[in-house]
Amino acid sequence: MNEKAQKGCETLLYTCGEVKKGEKVLVITDDTSMKIGMELYYCASDFTDTTLVCTPDRSTHGEAPSSSVAGAMMEADVIYGCTTFSLYNTDERIQACKKGARFVNVADYSMRMLEEGCLFADWKEIRTIVDDTATKIVGQELSIQTTAGTDFRTSIIGRKADVGYGVSRGKGESSSPPDAECAVGPADNSAEGILVIDGSIPLPGLGVIKEPITIKVEKGYITSIEGGNEADILRESLAAFNDNRVYLVAEVGFGMNPAGTLSGRMLEDEGVFGTMHIGIGNNLSYGGSNNTSVHIDLIMKSPTCKVDDHYVLKEGKLV
Predict the structure, then answer these.
(1) CATH superfamily to which 3-116 belongs
(2) What is the pLDDT of residues 41-68, one digit of tens each?
(3) What DSSP letter does each residue of 127-157 carry, written as one string?
């Protein structure tokens, strides 16, 4: 086992998943992420009942696992999703957690992420930041502006704050370390305006954005995507799903990890403190019913966000 990576594996097991001796641990991996999955499997196998399953790569974040993997998820106490594309926004993950499993998302990891960086943040401090912010993002209407040109608003009536502490310690909890975030789901058909994406889109061919992408939203759905080469890649990637549900604005998220930096890796980028992300596609985790197999996050830098008559962020700083 890689000695440097062992530190990260131990953080995922003991701090983030709080795995106990005798618990049934399931590590799910795929062809591309096999090295990460094996590192975590060997570390967990030293002290508890651990099973490793390997599946072919999915095609995007939120695509359902195979029926065999789904069955194994329903029998585990703690699940580690060491896959290239995230299983977090899948019905299979949701059902396993409803049964009581703890889920730790380890999607799109690199060996560097196990060895150094924001995985080793102060998770107790982060919980306080997340809880404080969660109280501020529930209300009637949410708006976002950025100096890059974002001018967006949506109703959030009836939606609850979804919290991501980066740890899964209680029965049924799920997390995506090093991502820590708060999020709220737009009410159906209410999102309107312009989004200028200048941070990151963790998809093949994209990552950290070099030329801002301008996205128009009407009645809850993306209606146009404009910009340079990266805009073309995003437009073509979404069209390839041949599913209009992928254009739904599903989530408004707030990065909550002060140790995070944009890298092009999803679970680092979503959690960068002072950024916001718009999730599109599947919104089951955010109070909706859009059960497409796709969920993709679009990350903006230094946003100003208001909920009703109070600020949540001003130019990327918590108010």
Answers:
(1) Thermophilic metalloprotease (M29) (3.40.1830.10)
(2) 999 998 888 999 999 999 888 889 999 9
(3) HHHHHHHHTTS-SSEEEEE-TTS-EEEEE-T
